[in-house]
TrEMBL record:
Active-site residues, record numbering mapped to chain: 155 (proton acceptor)
Chain sites annotated for binding S-methyl-5'-thioadenosine: 31, 106, 137-138
Transferase is among the record's keywords: yes
All copies of domain PABS, residue ranges: 2-237
Name assigned to this protein: Polyamine aminopropyltransferase
Family matches, as Pfam families: Spermine_synt_N (PF17284), Spermine_synth (PF01564)
Origin organism lineage: Bacteria, Bacillati, Bacillota, Clostridia, Lachnospirales
InterPro entries the record matches: PABS, PABS_CS, SAM-dependent_MTases_sf, Spermi_synthase, Spermidine_synt_N, Spermidine_synt_N_sf
Enzyme class, broadest EC rank: transferase
Keyword Transferase: yes
Coiled-coil intervals: none
Gene Ontology CC terms, in alphabetical order: cytosol
Length: 287
């Protein structure tokens, strides 16, 4: 008998993955957590029925939310990760010896424990002494923070359910206040390909564009994401992701990567015409 995990990307489209077995099933206070083992993607996690990462493609997401801002900002010392309970983003950040502190704010302790147990190679980042885990709501954590971080990475899942507050105008305003005068915020921007996802992308870009003087969007190919196409947002008080990119400085670090390069960094900000159009339409609403 064959076993398949299916995730609906729209009412008319679903991604189905053959699975060998289920490694974990549980219901936390915040979400349903399932872990499967598959021949194609290795182990993968689904939260409330949606794949959030797999052995096969987590490197794409984790590298693109960390190395893009780190290749731009010249002196990151203090980092905040909102979400990130799997440890993947922290895993990439601890490779930078000049980073002094990494605060991980994850509301769901069960998710962290499951990832530590089943994905130790990903969760290894959480064991670094510079990493501090805070089990609380990200928006609440941010409200009293002022000029404390050089980099904020919003690694929360999506703008619905218990993470909905992390995609509001208040949240982006709180991020702005929590960043130092040259701080950068990076966040996942979703996929604009399917009609039912487009509005969320539009809303997010409009809110960030109104909150930060510099706001750009970049892209990556992630097979388990809806349509295999994913966007990220780059927002900053000072640094532009292209004109302030320092390839020579970053390449001197000699970090081994599987996806990110400084050449790809530049290309990732060159977006398809339909994406450019929808972003520009939202920007014009601000004028």
């Amino acid at each position: 008998m064959e076993f398949w995990f299916s995730e609906f990307h729209t009412g008319n489209v679903k991604l189905s993955v053959r699975v060998n077995k289920q490694l974990f099933a549980g219901e936390s206070e915040y979400q349903r957590i399932d872990v499967f083992e598959s021949p194609e993607f290795g182990k993968f996690v689904a939260l409330d029925g949606e794949i959030v990462f797999s052995d096969a493609d987590e490197f794409v997401y984790d590298e693109m939310v960390t190395h893009v801002p780190m290749a731009v900002h010249p002196h990151v010392k203090n980092v905040l990760i909102i979400g990130g309970g799997d440890g993947g983003v922290a895993k990439e950040l601890i490779r930078y010896p000049d980073i002094e502190t990494i605060d991980v704010v994850e509301v769901d302790k069960m998710f962290v424990d499951v990832c530590r147990d089943i994905f130790p190679e990903v969760a290894a980042g959480m064991n670094d002494p510079r990493v501090n885990i805070h089990y609380e709501d990200g928006l609440r954590f941010l409200r009293n923070k002022r000029s404390q971080y050089d980099l904020i990475i919003n690694d929360s899942t999506d703008p619905f359910g218990h993470t909905e507050g992390l995609f509001t105008k208040e949240f982006y305003g709180s991020c702005y206040k929590a960043l130092r005068e040259d701080g950068i915020m990076v966040y996942q921007h979703g996929s604009p390909f399917y009609d039912e996802d487009e509005q969320a992308c539009r809303d997010m870009h409009r809110k960030v564009y109104r909150s930060f003087p510099i706001s750009r969007v970049y892209q990556a190919h992630i097979p388990t994401c809806p349509s295999g196409y994913w966007l990220f947002g780059f927002a900053s008080k000072k640094y532009h992701p292209l004109t302030d990119l320092d390839p020579e400085r970053w390449n001197k670090r000699h970090l081994k990567t599987w996806y990110y390069t400084t050449n790809l960094h530049t290309g990732a900000f060159m977006l398809p015409k339909y994406v450019e159009d929808l972003l520009e339409e939202e920007e014009r609403k601000h004028e």
